[in-house]
């Protein structure tokens, strides 16, 4: 069936046009047409070649695209091969470097000895991964030995080329090195303090997990006191990573890690006070303490809390009742004074926080229980008691509570050292005598204790009266990092 012709729209003409007859033209012969087409093609080809000599080849030409694709494929294969080589080239070193065991705490220490700390004046000494100093590399750890830290190891790796079979843990990881232990609350607190200082200076960022090391050996717990303080400070129960799920030979890498190995070393007093202020505030908030009504008695006079913080066993008083009687007598002479007697081994964390919050003068034998002093208000007083022999033989460790008093804004009012004690079979300055004196009992001197207590009570009363008259009391505002 034939198709109907297409409809064409033409303009209408009102006057008819005459069409003139042109003479009929003669068609070109096939030979001429062929010659014409050949000449045209040669001309176009010649022009194209001339242009190509002056114009760089187009990147979109098929040949160019194919060439670039081959280059991309080759480069991709080379990058993949290079990444595999980098993964295999990650070198793990022992966490505990025995070459530095004689200088285990100096400089780069024997823990992660190839790494140097980041340290700004007055701030904590720490390592952070990734960072500029690590060239953007992450920290990776391997091994979970609890007896020999040289069997555990560390390495650095770029995020794109982690070691073979490595696991990557997301979030912030705190890696703590403690030369002593996490059971003693003084040594444990010393290890935690620098992390709190870092937390304050870095936008209050909190960790997803903690990794605890002692001499490069993995540890899995803190004392209950330290764990609760850490929970109060960061707002969550600390998760202590034990790597039970990991193969001992397979590395674990961390999206972000902060490593501390110098405790408070490098921190200015101002920075330490700021850190202890935050922990005090957080601990009181955690324990729901409100102290406004407890600071003033019914007569409008300041309350003065005098606490005897007793020990049982080593470094306890030989005659507790006599010591209590001396302080009770002096406290009764000062209006507003209240004597409290407590034992550190039978109080919960919050009971200790409350006791310290009500204490202005803390009297206690040398021992870890004195660590609680930072929970008192700033400018509170500390009285310390030692058994015989410590001054000559105990070394600088006997001054740790002088240090924490200064760092937390307290006043260490001196120490009484018992001149009498158990006899030592060696000369008194022989270091072997320390094993006899270390846990010795502590006697008393009624005259000295009475005068000492009276002087400190008078000083504290005067200071607190000035605070009342000036209407200056300890701040009860919300804590930083809340």
TrEMBL record:
Transmembrane spans: 31-50
Record's compositionally biased regions (Basic residues): 15-25
Keyword field: Glycoprotein, Glycosyltransferase, Membrane, Transferase, Transmembrane, Transmembrane helix
Highest taxon in the source lineage: Eukaryota
GO molecular function, one term: glycosyltransferase activity
Residues annotated as signal peptide: none
Glycosyltransferase 61 catalytic domain segment(s): 294-383
GO annotations of cellular component type: Golgi membrane
Pfam family name, one: Glyco_transf_61
Disordered, as annotated region: 1-25
Alphabetized InterPro entries for the sequence: Glyco_transf_61_cat, Glycosyltransferase_61
Subcellular location: Golgi apparatus membrane
Membrane topology: Single-pass type II membrane protein
PANTHER family hit by this protein: GLYCOSYLTRANSFERASE, PROTEIN O-LINKED-MANNOSE BETA-1,4-N-ACETYLGLUCOSAMINYLTRANSFERASE 2
Protein name per its UniProtKB record: Glycosyltransferase 61 catalytic domain-containing protein
Species per Swiss-Prot/TrEMBL record: Manihot esculenta
